[in-house]
Amino acid sequence: MILEMKVPSPGESITEVEIAAWLVQDGDYVEKDQAIAEVDSDKATLELPAEMSGVITLKAEEGDAVAVGAVVCLIDTSAVRPEGDAPAKVAKATPEAAPAVASAPVKETPAAAASYATGSASPAAKKILAEKGMLASEIVGTGKDGRVTKEDAVKAVPSMGTNSNGGTRGTTRSKLSMLRRKVAERLVSAKNETAMLTTFNEVDMGSIFALRKQYKEAFTEKHGVGLGFMSFFTKAVIRALELYPAVNSMIDEKEMVTYDFCDISIAVSGPKGLMVPVIRNAENLSFRGVESEVKRLAIRARDGEITVDEMTGGTFTITNGGVFGSMLSTPIINPPQSAILGMHNIVERPVVKNGEIVVAPIMYVALSYDHRIIDGKESVGFLVAVKEALEDPTTFLMDGDQKKALEL
Asked: Which residue among 375, 392, 399, 401 is the active-site one?
């Protein structure tokens, strides 16, 4: 029996995927549920499992864009599993050698003779080449007798300059994955279609440093996850969203949609690039709950197991460029959300406290927001509320009881 394997739908609104990589070769014997391919959608990279055991015949190449529901491979379920670990190969019939046929002698075509037009260019082409700082003699024309056409001039790439130092000057081209192309489209869309503005502040992380130093080991020993910064930032963001609900809103045509729950997206770096999984109803989670969910989602993203559903939605995003050493940045809104908070590296800096200069661990934070629905009052107030909670987490995030909040 020949089974046709079709591309399943990775999620709502996705109509096409791209074959990122085949994990098996044409003619291999595959087991049921074995991962046979990685496919890129515009939201995630997913594994395609074999629906049945048998010998596989590939019907698409790596890099092909394939419609959802299209046949990508065939599985011969009647094939016998090979002995040992060696994969089975389909025995393909070898056609009998065709009788030799005397071929007619090939007449060599002489190279085109140079003429008055060789190396010359049309007036339009000359103008384009002049703008690029190029000469017609540098280009092989495709027009009659080697004439450089306007199309040749448009396609011409200027030289990167001569190199007298003897080094190589090669270039490499690689196709962007469907996920990367979609991310690019969304980022450009966010810049072009929102009234994006960024406001900044600084946070003294001394209190959080002290809390982590005091309870980090006990927290890890009891809960099996570390006490990181993300739980403090997530809890501080949730508190600020409750104080300023406009930041937890989105624009839907002529309406403003405000959410009474907090689905917090966290930007993480995966093998396929930036991914933004979502912590659902983060307002109901404890410090332990947030840290456990962050760890779970980060591992799934790193291992390429994250699903479209786990990255769909989100009402607010937190991104941490500090893990890569960023001091300050202006994060781009993750549409259709209306705001994103950027964390950065923590550096000991001189600050004034009670009239004296002291050294403190300072983090710069940035809030990018859509000014169409979030005014300066809300944006600045939101960021100040985040700062307030992070600088005094015991009061604002733990109800005055550190051990109870950390479930110790």
From this structure: 375
Domain regions of the chain by residue span: 2-76, 197-405
Q: What is the largest CA-CA distance in the chain?
A: 100
Does 197-405 match 2-76 at the fold level? no
* 3-state secondary structure at position 284: helix
User: Do the strands 339-343 and 65-67 form a parallel or antiparallel pair, or are they unpaired?
Assistant: unpaired
Type of residue at 367: L
- Beta-strand relationship, 264-270 and 273-275: antiparallel
CATH number assigned to the domain covering 2-76? 2.40.50.100
371 catalytically annotated: yes
The per-residue b/e assignment along 326-354, b for 16 or more CB within 10 angstroms, e otherwise, is beebebbbbebbbbbbbbbbbeeeeeeee
pTM over 0.85: no
Residue from 33, 64, 303, 371 carrying the catalytic annotation = 371
- Tell me if 277 sits within 8 A of 404, measured CB to CB: no
HSE, CB side, 13 Å, CA atoms: give it for residue 264: 27
> pLDDT by residue (tens digit) across 16-34?
888 888 899 998 999 999 9
Spell out the CATH class of 197-405.
Answer: alpha beta
